[in-house]
Amino acid sequence: MLRTLAASVALVLLAVSALCGKAVPLPKECPIRHAVAHAGHSWAMYSKFDTARVWAIPLSDLSKGIDVFVGRSNTAPPRFHIGQGSLWVSTTDTSPMWYSRPSAYECSDQLTRFPTSKLLKGDKLTEDEKDGRIDGDKSCGHIFVTSMTNWIRSAARDVGYGMEPKLYSGTIATGPTSARQFVTSCYRFSKKGAKLVDGIVMTERDTKKPVWSLTAYTVRQKADEWWEKDFNVQFTFREPFTVFDVGRYSYFLTDSGSLYRVFSGANWAMTRTAHPVWEDKKRPIVALVEDADEKQAYLFVGPEKEGGKPAYFAAGQKPELVPYDPADLPQLKNAPDKDKLKNSNYASAVEAQRYALLLVKKRLIKAPKP
Questions:
Q1: How confident is the model at residue 347, as a pLDDT?
Q2: What are phi and psi of 171, to 5 degrees?
Q3: Sign of the torsion formed by the C-alpha atoms of 230, 232, 235 and 238
């Protein structure tokens, strides 16, 4: 009987592996260094255990800054976005869900918003606010909506797959009370799931040849958290990504260092194509610095050959590389705490801040006068 049970488990694991194809597994740490310039500060995030923290330093006075715990996160470091005057981050809340198995606890993905003005003022968060359980604009941080990834996981469990889907997502704020979330998965959805994911289809064919999808969903904050399907994207990458907007295009920066973009402006086309911008496997992108106020982004790559200089380029249709001397990367005046540097995610945040300060030095990002 034990052998039969072991064989059954092995078959289930094999089917799970086949379903998601050659997808890149979620890494323990995202190799991309990410910082955002906004409101005269450089913002980065890091995680410690399962917690998410935001770290912002003034561009005019590096001896000061804020370091705030904003919730729980299952990615390292947390993926975040700054737009419409707020910090947007996907947080998790481990609690019993209505679709859980008996005595089981599941992670609920929440899209949480924190007004940056309140964070910069040093407003302390209550315990409930730290957990993202406060509704209403009067709180420093609150759940904006339940993440679309959570709906997909719920629907997958409802049809009895008995597995976690491969889900990667990124969020862009489109207004004070609206956001767009790009979600990739290897599940095939039925037509009745056009507005809300309420139908997932799986056949024997899907276990052998998974059907990957990248879909843009838009939500406008309402009591019923009603998501609407915006458009589908034809794409080639199968791994986690960071998404950002420049002009009328959305860019997807993969964890392996490739960059793609898709037109995300007003258009009747329900299917669009993500075109490659940078796909040099020998020279991957290592850092992303966004200028949230000027709506621009810069990406950093290593040297073309040993002994050469690294370079950066502004997001656009065709990269125009600008070489720089690594010695020009500024050192932070406020030496990081040694205990925090033991956390690799914090070290990543330090590196991200240095890339942002280099752009200030190059006068590509404006720093307010001290």
A1: 85
A2: -125, 140
A3: positive
pLDDT digits (tens, 9 = 90+) for 194-219: 333 445 555 555 555 667 888 898 87
Going from N- to C-terminal start, the domains of the chain cover 30-146+324-364
Look up residue 286 and give its two tokens: 């290592």
How many CA atoms lie less than 13 Å away from 28 in the CB half-sphere? 4
Residue tagged 């249709």 (tokens): 317
Helix (H), strand (E) at residue 91: strand 86-95
Bridge partners, 95 (sequence order): 106
Greater model confidence, 153 or 139: 153
Contact 300, 287 (CB under 8 A): yes
Q: What predicted TM-score, i.e. pTM, was given to this entire model?
A: 0.81
Q: What SS3 state is found at 299?
A: strand
CB within 8 Å of 290: residues ≥ 6 apart:
34, 35, 36, 37, 82, 244, 296, 297, 298
Dig out the tokens for 55 from the structure: 């770290």
**Highest mean pLDDT of the ranges 19-23, 92-96, 330-334:** 330-334
CA 208 vs. chain centroid, Å, equals 29
Q: What is the Cα–Cα distance from 348 to 353, expressed in whole angstroms?
A: 9
311-321 pLDDT, tens digit per residue, is: 999 999 899 99
Adjacent-strand bridge partners of 299: 288, 313
Please calculate the CA angle 223-229-233 and round it to the nearest 5 degrees: 145
The pLDDT, as a whole number, for residue 75 is 73
CA distance 163 to 64: 46
Please state the length of the chain: 370
Question: Tell me, what's the pLDDT at 354?
Answer: 93
If you average pLDDT over every residue of the chain, what do you get? 75
| Calpha distance 42→332 (Å, rounded) | 12
Amino acid at 262: V
- Dihedral angle over CA of 153, 155, 161, 164, nearest 10: 0
Amino acid letter, residue 363: R
